[in-house]
Design brief:
Blueprint: H1 11-20, H2 24-34, E1 40-44, H3 51-59, E2 65-66, E3 75-78, H4 86-89, H5 91-94, E4 98-100, H6 103-112, E5 119-122, H7 129-137, E6 143-147, H8 151-163, E7 169-172, H9 176-185, E8 190-196, H10 210-214, H11 217-235, E9 238-248, H12 257-266, E10 270-273, E11 282-283, E12 287-288, E13 291-292, E14 301-303, H13 305-308, E15 313-320
Parallel strand pairs: 5-6, 5-8, 6-7, 8-9
Antiparallel strand pairs: 1-3, 1-4, 2-3, 9-15, 10-15, 11-14, 12-13, 14-15
Helix pairs in contact: 6-7, 9-11, 11-12
Length: 322
């Protein structure tokens, strides 16, 4: 693993992470991994090329390709060091044959498991990594509404979906809860919804060290309120027996288990589903500081850097029962 300059982590953040982990050894292992770069990973865009063909093309460039998960051959790790900028300048990237995407970022779509012909909402879609992954899983059949509030990020989203040949996508620009209300008023109901929510980004410290400087407990609590509103609004446009995957790239329980617990207590017709993923998942926490969450929250998935040599993520799968 490539070692980098140690992060300047705030005392309150360190104190909270120490409480989250089971023991001192686990906590120290976590800190050790934060000082390393995550592996370079890409996702083969199966709308344009097969994983086997892409692997052959990249290996002809002397790239060393590893496919860590037999059941998901589209997930690839580049094991050798590339020239600066080579990953984004390659012909295969420009043609949309692959998307540069961190492995943990690919997991929410695997949990969502979208199918051909479904109507899917990606509520917080830009830059499009998960949107294009959903499109590939659906083989461009069915419809995805991909929403983003920022005009600048909408442009990035449109560019990435076009590059990847994802043609079953309608892009919208609206605040998430307002969009859900408008869709409800128009009679829309979705088979599946992905809420990859805006979050404090604690899980991205390996690749985005500046997150450590920006971290603030007040932001964590503010985001928790926004996240609850997003899930609450999305449930109003979910079909009976439909599924929502809620994910964040943070470890903060206020943005993770607290949000899920709020939804389960507010909506008796919503149940939490077990998640099967090709990485080590730790169960969700049912206690945090002075709060106690329902036991079913343990079915959520906590992904840590030291467990999988990835970034950190949180994933929950909810089903709206009849």
């Amino acid at each position: 693993m490539f070692m980098k300059k140690p992060l300047d982590l705030k005392p309150l953040f360190l104190e909270r992470m120490k409480q989250i982990f089971e023991n001192e050894k686990d906590f120290q292992n976590y800190l050790k991994f934060l000082e390393t770069e995550p592996p370079v990973s890409i996702r083969c865009n199966t709308l344009k090329i097969s994983p086997d063909e892409l692997k052959k093309r990249l290996e002809s460039k002397r790239w060393q390709i590893k496919q860590p998960f037999k059941e998901y051959p589209e997930i690839m790790i580049i094991e050798n060091e590339l020239q600066p900028g080579e990953l984004g300048r390659s012909l295969e990237h420009l043609l949309g044959y692959y998307y540069v995407q961190e492995i943990s970022s690919m997991l929410p779509v695997l949990a969502l498991n979208p199918k051909k012909g479904e109507l899917v909402l990606d509520l917080c879609a830009s830059p499009g990594s998960k949107t294009t992954q959903i499109s590939a899983k659906m083989e461009n059949q069915g419809t995805i509404i991909a929403n983003e509030i920022s005009l600048g990020r909408v442009k990035i989203l449109a560019s990435n979906t076009e590059r990847c040949g994802a043609s079953n996508i309608i892009i919208t620009k609206k605040e998430g809860t307002a969009l859900c209300k408008r869709l409800k008023d128009s009679g829309f109901e979705f088979d599946k919804i992905l809420i990859d929510a805006p979050c404090s980004g604690e899980g991205t410290l390996r690749s985005t060290p500046k997150t450590a400087l920006m971290w603030n407990i007040h932001t964590v609590k503010k985001l928790s309120k926004i996240q609850k509103h997003l899930v609450e609004a999305a449930l109003e446009i979910l079909k009976s027996n439909g599924e929502i995957v809620y994910s964040t790239c943070t470890h903060a329980p206020e943005e993770n288990e607290e949000v899920v617990d709020f939804v389960l207590k507010s909506f008796p017709n919503v149940k939490i589903e077990a998640i099967k993923l090709p990485v080590k998942c730790r169960p969700g926490m049912n206690k945090w500081q002075n709060e106690t969450y329902g036991k079913s929250v343990e079915k959520t998935c906590r992904i840590y850097p030291q467990d999988n040599n990835t970034e950190g993520f949180f994933i929950a799968k909810l089903r709206k029962v009849k």
